[in-house]
Fold this protein.
Amino acid sequence: MRTFLAGKRNRPAGQAGVTLIEMLIVVAIAGLLTGLVFPSVSAGLQSIRLRSASDSLVSFLNGALNRAERREEVMEVVVSASENTIRLYSAKPGFERTLKMPEGVTIEAVLPELAEPQEGPRSFLLMPGGVPPRIGIQLRNSRGSRRIVRVDPITGVPQIEILETR
């Protein structure tokens, strides 16, 4: 004679487990939660990529400005929106650094905008003992968020400006 345990839905003793229906319900709930959470997680990752790219660009420009001042080298910053890169060259042979924007982040504009549009990359010279040029690089992620990294010509410090999304 089989004995039944109370609270076990009248299952015979020794038989434990989950029914197929129970498993399907749990999988369906997990799928719904994943579908609801995915867009916000994706947006968060895009924001992190944009913030990280902005911080990397600030560090890159800071390094260029410091090298021009401390080592007294003429530095050239070349911004290529088509290649999505910023390159740094020195007057001394063999020095070249490249910063490539991460996937999902693009260089949207190089500021200040020129009166007549120019094809190809834009160049800026950093002179030792000179005033830093007014450089601005506008970044955009795939969700439309924008940031501008500007070099303040008075302090010579790169700063990040967050633009409102449209």
Q: What stands out?
A: Residues 114 and 122 are 10 Å apart (CA to CA). The first strand starts at residue 75 and ends at 80. The mean pLDDT is 89.
